[in-house]
Write a sequence for this structure.
């Protein structure tokens, strides 16, 4: 049987999510609007994989961006677990 190719993020997808996480932390940002855009991204099936990639990318991204990715990932997994157990 052929092995599936390993998952690799789209550079554009990573850049978009990093941009949103960066904007969300900005005091000048419309946080409600940025949050709504992050929630739209959450509908993408690979969204959590993107968050893991950003979280574990070492120094490729600012600490604050990686923290935001980790927190969002934790919350997504928590709500998915709650949804499944309901």
């Amino acid at each position: 049987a052929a092995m599936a190719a390993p998952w690799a993020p789209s550079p554009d997808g990573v850049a978009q999510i990093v941009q949103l996480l960066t904007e969300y932390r900005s005091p000048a940002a419309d946080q409600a609007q940025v949050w709504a855009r992050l929630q739209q991204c959450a509908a993408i099936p690979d969204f959590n994989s993107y968050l893991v990639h950003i979280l574990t990318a070492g120094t490729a991204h600012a600490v604050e961006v990686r923290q935001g990715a980790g927190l969002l990932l934790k919350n997504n997994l928590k709500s998915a677990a709650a949804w499944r157990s309901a």
In short: The radius of gyration is 14 Å. The mean pLDDT is 89. The CA atoms of residues 24 and 32 lie 9 Å apart.
